[in-house]
Amino acid sequence: MPPRRKTATIEPAAQPEALDTTPSPAVPEEAAPEEEQHGELLLLPALIMPQTLLLPHMSLPYPLDEGEETEVVDHAIRGNRLILVLATRDQSDGEGDDDVEPPIDEPTSFGLLVDTEELCAVGVIAEVGHKITRPGGPAHIIIQGVARGVVRGYHQRNPYTIAVVERFDDAIPDTLEAKAVVAHVHEQVESYISMMPNVPEEVLAMVRSVDQPGWLADLIAFSPEFEPARRQELLEIFDPIERLRSLSQMLQERLAFLTIRHQIQSEAQAGLDRQQREVILREQLRMIQRELGEMSHEEALANEFREKIEAANMPPEVKEKALNQLDRLEHQHPFSPEIGVIRSYLEWLTELPWAIETPDHIDIAAARRILDEDHYGLDKVKERILEFIAVRKLAGNKMKAPIICFVGPPGVGKTSLGRSIARALGRSYVRMSLGGVRDEAEIRGHRRTYVGAMPGRVIKALRDAKTRNPVMVLDEVDKVGSDAFRGDPSSALLEVLDPEQNHSFSDHYLEVPFDLSQVIFITTANLLEPIPPALRDRMEIIEVSSYTEVEKLEIARHFLLPKARESHGLGSDMLAITDDALFTKLACATSTARLAHSVARLRAASPKTRRTTRT
Description:
The radius of gyration is 50 Å and the shape is rod-shaped. It has a 5-stranded mixed beta barrel with strand order 2-4-7-8-9. The chain has a 5-stranded parallel beta sheet with strand order 11-12-15-10-16, sandwiched between helices. The protein has a two-stranded antiparallel sheet with strand order 5-6. By secondary structure, it is α/β, with parallel strands linked by helices. 44% of the residues lie in helices and 15% in strands. Helix 17 (549-568) packs parallel to helix 19 (589-605).
C-alpha cells in the first residue's frame, strides 16, 4: 500500500485549499514513476529556464537579475530554500503566430512571457545555496539539485509562479543487472575520455566513484557534451536502470562518431608524420654527407648550376635573375613540383650563347668561289651578297645587318643561298621554317605559368647554333598565318627582325632581354603579296628568278648528276644521262634531280653493277 502524501507549504497563505485547478501537463506513460517512488506534494516557487541545465545531485551558479529570478530566490530563502527548476519545451516545430502576445498573467523568464503549456512536466527540485557577487557583473546564486519533481498544478502565477510538485527520489537497486549496466557504462566513459584530449584524470576518478545507476546517469548527462534536449529526455526517465541504459545508447553513438573522427585524424597524422620523418632523415643525410665531405644530390645540382651561371658570362640583370631562381631551387622541398620548372628554366638560361660569337672570316675571293661552287648563274644575287660581305669587312659590327629576303619560285636555290652565305662568312647556320605558323607563342615562347611552357623558335635556334651571331634563315615567311585567339606571329617577327628593336628581344619564357642584333637574318618567300606591309618594309627584297634552259642544263650536268652519283655510290663512268633526256625534265631543279636519282637507282640495281661490286 503506497504511503500517504504530505503537503508542505512555504507561507501560511499558501494552503492546499487554494490550489489552482488548472490541469498540469501529463507525464509520459513510459516515464511514469513506480508506486514506491511516489513522494510528498510540495508548493515550490518555479525558476523557469529556456533549457534543461540542472540535474539531481548537480550544482551550478545561476545569474540573477532584478526581476522574477530575484523574487523566486528570496521566496525560497524565507522558507525551506527549495525551488523547482523548470525548462521550457522546444517550440521550434510549434504552430501559431509569433506576433500574438501571450496573456500578461502567465509565468515569465528572462523578461519573456511563457505559457504554462510550454513548460516541461518534469523538473528538478533544487536547494538554494549562498549568493556570489562579482564586481562589475551580475550576482550569482548556487543551486543544488536534490530530486526529480513532477508538476501536478499551479498554485500562483503573479508576481511569480508557484507550482504543486510531487517529489520523486531514485530507488537504489542492488541487482546483477544494475551492476552490469554500471560496469558497462564505466567502460564506455573510459573509452570516451581516452579519445578526448586534455580531460583531467579527476573526471574519470569521479565517475568511477559513483556506483548508483540513477546518480551515475545524471552525473554523465550533466557533461557539456550532452545537449539540453538529451538532458530533459533523461530527466523524464524515473527508472534508474532504464535511464542508465538510455544513456549508454547515447554514449555508444558518441563513441562511434569519435572513433571515425579519430581514425580520420590518425590517417592524416600518419601522412604528415611520414613527410616530417622524410624531411628529418634527409636533413640528417645532408649533415652526414657534409661531415664526410660529400654533397647531396640537391647541393651538387645547385653547385653545378652556379658554375654554369658564372661561366655563361650573362649580362648583370640576367645573372641576377638566374641567381634568384637558383636560391629558390635550393630552398624547395625535394618532392616539390616547382623543382622541375626551375631546373628547366636554369638549363635554358645557362645553355644560351650570351657571350659566344663566331669570328667572321671575310675573304671576297673565297666567298665568290664558294658561291660559284654552290650555285650556277644568279650573277646579280651573288654580286649583292659580295657587296654585303665587302661592307662587312670595312665596317665590322658597326653596320647593322640588312634583312635580305629572297623571293622566287620553288626550286631556284633560295634556302641554299643562306647556307652559302654562312659558309662564306664562317658562321653557324640555322634554319627555321615559318610555314603554317599561327601562334605568336611559336616566336615569343609561352609564359612559365602554363604547364609545359617552352621558349620560342628563335631562342631554340640560337641554343642549337651555340653562338649569338649565326646566319638564321627564316623560310617561307609569306606563309605565316594569324589567329584571333593566339595572336599574330608576323607582329612578333617585327621585333625579331627590326634592328631598332631586336637588341633587347624578350622571350615570354625567359623574361629577360637577349641581343639579336648580331644575327644575320635571311628570309625566303615565293610571293611578296602575302607578307604584311610593315614586315615587308624592313626587308631588302632580292628576286631570284627562274633559270633559262641553258642554265638548267648546266645545273643538271655540273650539280645534280654529281650529287646523284655520290649519294648512290656510283663512279663518274657508271652513270650518264644524255642532254635530250635532261631536256624533258627541266621544268625545275626538283624534277631534274628526281630523274637523276631514278636513273642512279636503276644503274645501281643492274647485274653488271652488282658483279663489279662483288669483284
